Amino acid sequence: MMNFKPRPALAVLKAVFAVGLAIASASALAQATAWPNKPIKLVVPYGAGSSPDVIARIVGEKLAPRLGQPVLVENRVGAGGNNGTGAVAKAAGDGYTFLISTNGPLVYNTVLYRKLPYDPFTELRPVVLAGGQANICAVRADSGIKTLQDLVSAMKQNPGKFNFSSTGVGSLSQLGVELLKVKTDTYAVHIPYASSPLAILALLQGDVQFACVPAVAVMPQVKAGKLRTLAVSTAQRSQLTPDIPTMKEAGLPEIENLAWMAIMAPASTPTDIVQRMNQEINAVLAMPEVREKLHAQFMEPIGGSSESLQNFMRQELRVMTPVIKRTGITID
């Protein structure tokens, strides 16, 4: 007869727990390895044809086959980019919702808004810095204004008669002009739009007298003979628009800025998914055909690690906070 000894209850529980843990771990591993198993959404908080929209579609087209799933671009406009950015900040971190947003909603608005409905530094997780471009200050070709100094003189001689368009409240295309106004003691009324194409359309129609917006919206109209460029916003001339002087070359030092676009995820998105997205997007940005397409849209691909993007955003906050406060702009 076999001598059977019942196992202590604790040992049985431990054995059951170990089996359950193994099953759960296997299940979690299977889910992680299966990602992605459905389409991925890339939210753009600006309108179609805007710089983030353009780069999202160029990158998304090449990213989809690498991930084995479609990458769907969704435009969620409004509140100067805050609507779409905030929606992703509140979204589930399941690896199927990402964001491509810009300077304003990701950094500047934390200073500009008295009460921002999301915190980009705690509710969003950096993935990769996708690209950047200079803002270009432009006027209508028939305006008679040929240089940036001409524009400053015209604003001083005609106070209250100049309007400028931007890509939204708190955007770099607004803040750059606000800083210009402070430095030159001039005045112009800000009129925000949902995208750079709309901001340029307002300029073409004569609703505003000038705009400093991304090159992708300006240069086609320059080539068509409808707009005249005055200056680029970056510290050095852009290799993509080498004939356009910098603000400093145009006689206005200490006005330098870069319009950049970053891909972010909800804060709870798993690290392995963020790392995979970072690797794949960096690989896409390095493709010669992608670089060529971005250059054709006057954009420079950047790339890098998610950690470097996080450090970059915090540095932008340190640099731009005193600039924003100097302008005196606050938004309720």
Topology:
Blueprint: H1 9-34, E1 40-44, H2 51-67, E2 71-75, H3 82-89, E3 97-102, H4 103-112, E4 124-133, E5 135-140, H5 148-157, E6 163-166, H6 172-184, E7 189-192, H7 196-205, E8 210-214, H8 215-223, E9 227-232, E10 259-266, H9 271-285, H10 288-296, E11 300-301, H11 306-327
Parallel strand pairs: 1-2, 1-3, 6-7, 6-8
Antiparallel strand pairs: 3-10, 4-10, 4-11, 5-8, 5-9
Concise structural overview:
The chain has helices at residues 9-34, 51-67, 82-89, 103-112, 148-157, 172-184, 196-205, 215-223, 271-285, 288-296, 306-327, and strands at residues 40-44, 71-75, 97-102, 124-133, 135-140, 163-166, 189-192, 210-214, 227-232, 259-266, 300-301. By secondary structure, the chain is an alpha/beta fold.
How would you characterize the overall build of this protein?
The chain has 332 residues and is α/β, with parallel strands linked by helices. The protein folds into 2 domains: 38-132 and 260-327, Bordetella uptake gene, domain 1 (D-Maltodextrin-Binding Protein, domain 2, 3-Layer(aba) Sandwich); 135-232, 3-Layer(aba) Sandwich (D-Maltodextrin-Binding Protein, domain 2), CATH 3.40.190. Helices cover 45% and strands 18% of the residues. The strands form 2 sheets. The chain has a 6-stranded mixed sheet, sandwiched between helices. Strands 7-6-8-5-9 form a 5-stranded mixed sheet. Strand 6, helix 6 and strand 7 form a beta-alpha-beta unit. Helix 2 crosses helix 9, helix 4 crosses helix 11 (306-327) and helix 6 packs parallel to helix 11. The longest helix has 26 residues, at 9-34. The termini are far apart. Residues 1-32 have low confidence and may be disordered.
